[in-house]
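User: Please run a holo structure prediction.
Assistant: Happy to. Please share the sequence and the ligand.
User: Here you go; the ligand is S-adenosylmethionine.
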Amino acid sequence: MDAASWDDRYAGSELVWSAEPNRFVEAETASLAPGRALDVAAGEGRNAIWLAQQGWTVSAVDFSQVGLEKGEHAAQALGVGGRVEWTCADVRAWSPPASAYDLVVVAYLHLVAEDLAKVVTRAAAGLRPGGRLVGVGHDLVNLRGGVGGPQDPAVLWTPGQLRSLLTNSGLAVDTCSTVERSTPAGAAYDTLVTATAREPLEDPGPSYS
Ligand SMILES: C[S@@+](CC[C@H](N)C(=O)[O-])C[C@H]1O[C@@H](n2cnc3c(N)ncnc32)[C@H](O)[C@@H]1O
């Protein structure tokens, strides 16, 4: 879907997604000390707003201006408007500042593999050493009996794909698997990945013989 289609989808006053954060984003970030976070493809901002409520300073990026405006209004209403910066950009052609973030969240961004690789690689470069990445997306196995999500296999995630993308981006993968998410309509299957940006190797100094 292009930005205009997402704008149309977000056009009503009702939320398309929940007001609450994604359960995996919440579980994987709840124990982290707040710092600077980047929410890639933030949509209506449910994850960005929740992080801001936990004390994070958040950059929320999405190419739907309509979605971002809903997020901005909600953040203001909840008293965390000053903690979230909203940026309208196509993440396929956007790079975060290098080594700027303690946390990067990528939730349910579905792009063809080549584009996802570019976005994830750049997002990973936005992490400071020791920073964490939490990624969650509809898994390919969701097509076999899971509910919801895109039906095009070319944009669905797999643990193998995400593991190799993050490893190639220089991150240490902590967990990476297919996880079940129960919904009122039945079970849905997601790929969930968490990873850590490596600390630079210690300079051993000159060696004398
Ligand atoms: C399924 S929604 C998920 C929103 C949010 N991450 C969440 O979990 O609530 C996917 C989002 O990706 C955004 N998106 C898709 N392609 C994008 C792109 N190339 N650049 C920026 N945002 C994009 C859409 O506008 C939409 O808000």
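The chain has one domain: 3-189.
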